[in-house]
């Protein structure tokens, strides 16, 4: 998410309000940096406030128009419910968005870190410097959010003229992944001690590959349990239930088939969606 004309307009509009608020600017900006949101906190939260106001106005006018067409107690209640819920939902989504994106970026970085360390180890063995390694890494889109982290380091080194150690320290401050922070901190320690980087990278490859293997085994075990639960709860059980209800309806004639429609239209699709979400999260992927 990047700065836009709309977000900058919102910042100017609410500049006086944010000037009166005693908010820690550095902590808010740091959270937005970790979430890869290219805005300062005044701009982002001014945009959030404007979206809440717009949501309230749009929901109020739309429900009021509906009430003028169909004036009754239900549409009157909708005016209150919709105009109350829509701004709250918009506010919650935007306020929680930086923390959510930070968490998702950390997962993505941790997922690719074992393979990146292997790549870095190979280049280091060829005698390539850390600045050149991160420069090459910043051009490889295969590594997801790690490419963005490497690009930030490379930009500071090549365009801003900052030395490698300072650029790595700045990357540690804004990185959402604890593992990547430890990896960069280790590089700084090795450089400052004057030791060789190759042995450190080899240890990192062994460690992260082992941890990745253990995480994948845990995910596979959890997926196996969920697969067995899926077969029992949403395949076998509904089939037996339909057969039992159908036989009882044919023999007694007093069994209602409304439950079968509810099962087919509502319960089973919701169960499928729930298992889909759980299995995707169990695999460590984004839903």
Q: SSE layout and pairings?
A:
Blueprint: H1 5-13, H2 15-20, H3 25-34, H4 41-69, H5 73-125, H6 130-137, H7 145-158, H8 164-174, H9 178-193, H10 197-252, H11 258-282
Helix pairs in contact: 1-4, 4-5, 5-6, 5-10, 6-7, 7-8, 8-9, 10-11
Task: Describe this structure in a few short sentences.
By secondary structure, the chain is mainly α. It contains 11 helices and no strands. The chain has 3 domains: about 5-105, no CATH class; about 105-210; about 215-280.
Give structural notes:
- By secondary structure, the protein is mainly alpha-helical.
- Helix content is 83%, strand content 0%.
- It is built from 11 helices and no strands.
- It has helices at 5-13, 15-20, 25-34, 41-69, 73-125, 130-137, 145-158, 164-174, 178-193, 197-252, 258-282.
- Helix 6 (130-137) crosses helix 7 and helix 7 (145-158) runs antiparallel to helix 8.
- The radius of gyration is 27 Å and the shape is flat.
């Amino acid at each position: 998410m990047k700065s836009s004309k709309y977000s900058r307009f919102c910042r100017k509009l609410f500049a006086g309000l944010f000037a009166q608020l005693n908010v820690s600017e550095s902590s808010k900006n740091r959270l937005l940096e970790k979430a890869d949101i290219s805005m300062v906190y005044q701009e982002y939260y001014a945009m959030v406030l404007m979206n809440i106001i717009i949501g309230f106005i749009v929901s109020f006018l739309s429900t009021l128009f509906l009430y003028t067409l169909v004036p009754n107690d239900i549409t009157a209640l909708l005016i209150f419910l919709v105009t109350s819920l829509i701004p709250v939902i918009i506010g919650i989504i935007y306020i929680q968005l930086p923390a959510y994106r930070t968490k998702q970026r950390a997962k993505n970085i941790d997922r690719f870190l074992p393979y990146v360390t292997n790549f870095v180890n190979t280049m280091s063995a060829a005698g390539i410097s850390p600045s050149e390694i991160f420069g090459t890494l910043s051009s490889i889109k295969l590594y997801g959010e790690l490419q963005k982290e490497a690009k930030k380091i490379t930009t500071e080194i090549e365009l801003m003229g900052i030395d490698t150690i300072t650029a790595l320290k700045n990357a540690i401050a804004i990185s959402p992944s604890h593992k990547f922070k430890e990896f960069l901190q280790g590089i700084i320690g090795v450089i400052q001690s004057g030791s060789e980087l190759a042995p450190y990278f080899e240890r990192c490859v062994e460690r992260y590959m082992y941890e990745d293997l253990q995480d994948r085994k845990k995910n596979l075990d959890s997926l196996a349990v969920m697969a067995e639960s899926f077969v029992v709860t949403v395949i076998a059980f509904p089939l037996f239930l339909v057969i039992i209800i159908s036989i009882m309806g044919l023999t007694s004639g007093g069994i209602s088939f409304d439950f079968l429609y509810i099962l087919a239209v509502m319960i089973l699709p919701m169960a499928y969606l729930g298992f889909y979400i759980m299995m995707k999260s169990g695999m460590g992927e984004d839903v």
